[in-house]
Every structure is written in structure tokens, then in C-alpha cells.
Design brief:
Helix content is 34%, strand content 20%. By secondary structure, the chain is an alpha+beta fold.
């Protein structure tokens, strides 16, 4: 079973880190409809980062790691890296150019970055 770790962000620069067995876009709809208690007061949310895992256990381990960084330099670096890899798209809230996206092979990664 595929599982996804995702980070969402709202207009107030708040972040939520979660994992799901659903398609991340479907999970985002639940967040934005107010069906998730932790995020119902911060709507609207946008996905800024996704990682795909083969199992729930691996995704949960990574979620705990990233949550331990929350607010620290490692978390800021991860979010910043996701923002820079937008293929020239602009951020949903700031409107600035966020840079180009090197190929995953060049980065040696299998992550999906969705900064918008």
C-alpha cells in the first residue's frame, strides 16, 4: 500500500505535517472542508511538499522526524527547498519567483515537491 507524507501551508505561514493512504489532493480537500480538527481553523491550505512511501511504518517514521524539526533550521531548510523547486511557478501567497526544479535524478531523490 502506498502512503504519502505531506506538508501543507496556509496564508498565515502555518504548517501541518501529516501522512495519508489517500491521494494527497483528496486529503487536502478534507482539510479545506474543515473535516480535520487540527486544520479546520486555518483554511485554506495548499500542499507544498509530498514524499511517497511503500508502507505506513516508513511514512510514520519520517513524519515523526520532520515534526521533531518543526520550527527549527532543518524544517525551514526542507520547506525552503520545496519552495525553490517550483519550475518557475509562483507561491500561492507571496507571488515571487521561486526558482527552477532540478531533476530528481540529479538530486538523487524520489520525492515529489509541489510548491505552488
Amino acid at each position: 500500500m502506498n502512503c504519502f507524507l505531506y506538508i501543507i501551508k496556509n496564508q498565515k505561514e502555518r504548517y501541518y505535517i501529516g501522512i495519508t493512504g489517500l491521494d494527497p489532493e483528496k486529503r487536502l480537500l478534507r482539510h479545506n472542508k474543515g473535516n480535520v480538527y487540527s486544520t479546520k481553523f486555518g483554511k485554506p491550505w495548499k500542499i507544498i511538499y509530498i514524499e511517497k512511501y511503500d508502507n505506513y511504518e516508513s511514512a510514520r517514521k519520517r513524519e515523526k522526524q520532520i515534526k521533531s524539526w518543526h520550527g527549527g533550521n532543518a524544517f525551514k531548510k526542507l520547506v525552503s527547498r520545496a519552495a525553490r523547486s517550483s519550475n518557475g511557478r509562483t507561491s500561492p501567497f507571496e507571488g515571487e519567483y521561486l526558482g527552477s526544479n532540478p531533476s530528481l535524478a540529479a538530486l538523487g531523490m524520489s520525492r515529489i515537491n509541489l510548491a505552488r
